Amino acid sequence: MKIAYVILLLIILAAIVGCATEDTEITPMSKTLRSKPVETVQETTETQPEETYTPPETTTKTTTTKTTTTTTTTEMTFEQEEAKAIEAAKAFVKSLDGYKNQQGRELEVMNSAKTGCEGCWVFDIRFVRDVLYYPEKTERINVHVSLKNWKMETYTFR
């Protein structure tokens, strides 16, 4: 009987030692085996065709001409840029469901500010609309709109 226990212990010890050589980790508390990933590297060799020397043919004289073109961009004035940004912001607010579905009207820009890059603006826009379930009542809505590169970036109702 003692020999069976000794053999069993040797088998368990051999299994533990064998697992330890295969890059595994044994934790004494949980007694679970976790294998570490093994990296495999495959080497491939590519054969490249040998380069053959071909003598140059007759030489011809080549001339290189360099042409320089200048393009002028028409930059907008501050007022033109602001007008374009206001139109983009107004068009965005008019496309909102809260404006369209509740008969929005009296759209006005309260504040506008340029924020660094070209086409980057912030606006505070106010409009009047009907209250959703009480069409005889109206409410004033303030929307903060941020444009970046002439496109709407964020908006919040205030």
Structural class: alpha+beta
- Please summarize the sheet with the most strands: 4 strands, antiparallel
Series of secondary-structure elements, N-terminal to C-terminal: HEEHHEEEE
Q: What radius of gyration results from the CA coordinates?
A: 38 Å
SS strand fraction: 25-35%
SS summary, helix count: 3
Low-confidence stretches: none
How are the strands ordered across the major sheet? 3-4-5-6
**Average pLDDT:** 75
Number of strands: 6
Principal-axes shape call: flat
Distance between the termini: 84 Å
Q: Could you please describe the fold and organization of this structure?
A:
The strands form 2 sheets. A 4-stranded antiparallel sheet has the order 3-4-5-6, with helices on one face. With 158 residues, it is of the alpha+beta class. The mean pLDDT is 75. The protein is flat and about 95 Å long. 26% of the residues lie in helices and 28% in strands. β4 and β5 form a beta hairpin. It contains 3 helices and 6 strands; from the N terminus they run αββααββββ. The chain has helices at residues 2-20, 78-95, 97-100, and strands spanning 24-26, 33-35, 105-114, 121-130, 138-148, 151-157. It has a domain at 78-157.
Which helices and strands appear, and what pairs or packs with what?
Layout: H1 2-20, E1 24-26, E2 33-35, H2 78-95, H3 97-100, E3 105-114, E4 121-130, E5 138-148, E6 151-157
Antiparallel strand pairs: 1-2, 3-4, 4-5, 5-6
Summarize the structure.
This protein is of the alpha+beta class and 158 residues long.
